[in-house]
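Reviewers of the previous submission asked for a worked example of the structure-prediction workflow described in the proposal, so we include one complete record here. The input consisted solely of the amino acid sequence. No template or homolog information was supplied to the procedure at any stage.
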Amino acid sequence: MRLLALLASASLLVSTSAFAQVSDAAVERTGDTLTVTWKASPNAAVDVLVAERPDAPASALKLVSNDDRDGRHTLAAPASRRLYVTLRGAKGETLHVAERVLPVEGVQNFRDVGGYRTIDGRRVRWGVIYRSAGLSQIAPGEADELGSLGIRTVHDLRSKGERANEPTRWPGAGQPIIKARDYDMDMSGFAKAFAGGINETKARQTFAAFYPGILDSHREQFRELFQTLLSAEGPVLYHCSAGKDRTGVATGLVLTALGVPRETVLADYALSNRYYRMNLSPAANRAPTAEMRMFASLPPEVVKVFQGVEPEYLEAVFDEIDRRHGGFDVYLQKELGVGPAELAKLKATYLEQ
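From that input alone, the workflow returned the following C-alpha cells.
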C-alpha cells in the first residue's frame, strides 16, 4: 500500500502550495503527443508556454494556449524534440514542468530529476541532472535527442566487469566525458542467500541488507559525482546497469542534499518499478555475466523482486547514515566532502531561485 501511495505521489511530478493558482502539474507523452495537466483554483485562467531549453528567457517562450481553464492541454511534439513547459497564472506566477521520462530508444529508466519541491519551497531545476540504466544499446537515431540535452559528463557507476560486458555506446558527435572507477561487484550476500533456496521474502531481505553497503562500495564514485555537480560545467547524467539500485542511492543522496523531502525522494525512487524491466532473453545477453545467468534461473516471482525496488531498501541507506554519522549533513561533509559552503553552492546551482 505504501509503495502505491509513493508512486501516486511521484506521478504528480511537481506540487507547490506557494503557487496560488496552479499546482500538481505533469507532462506525459503518448507517441508524438504531449499532454500537460494541472490543478488550478476554480475558473482560474492559465497560459501554457513552451521552450526547447530549460533555461530559456521569457522572450523565447512560445504561447500555445491562452487563458486555459480546463486543466489540460495537448500538443504535438516528436520524441526527438524535448519541450519545457511553463504554466503562467493571471498574476504572472510561473510553474515549470517537463517530461519526467526521456523517450530515448535503447535506454531504460532515463529520467530528469528536476521539478521536485524542496522543504523551503524552491524546486529542483529541470534539464540539468539526469539518471538512467545502461547506455550500451542507445539507438543510432537518438544522437540528436541526446545532443539536445547538452550532457557534459556521464558518471558510470557500474563495475569493471559490467562495463566490459556492455560498454557505453554514445552515438553522434559531442561525446560527453565518461567517469568510472574499477571495482568488482560483491555478490557474496546474494550467493549466500541463494545457497539455502530463495523466495520473495528472502530476496527482499537480502536487498535491504545489501543497500547500506553501497555507501562504502561507491563512496568515491558518489564523492566524484558531487564534485562534478559542484563544478557546474553542464548537465550531468549518472547511471548503473538497471538505473535503480546504485543509481537510486545516488539520486536519494543528491535530492536529499538539495532539500527534497524524504517522502518525495522515496516516491522518485519507486518510479523504477514503472520504468525498468529486466531483459533476460538470450538475444539480449549474448555474453551474459554470472549475475545475469543467476537471475535467469530464478522463479518469476523472485525475478520480479530483483527487477523492482521497495521503499525500505533506500530507507535502510538513510538509517545507516544516521546510525554512523548522526545526521545526513555530517555524512555529506565527512564522506563526500560537501560542507556548508559546498551545500549552499549546490542549492544555488540546481534550485530555481
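The chain has two domains: 1-99, 100-352. We consider this example representative of the routine output the project will generate in years two and three.
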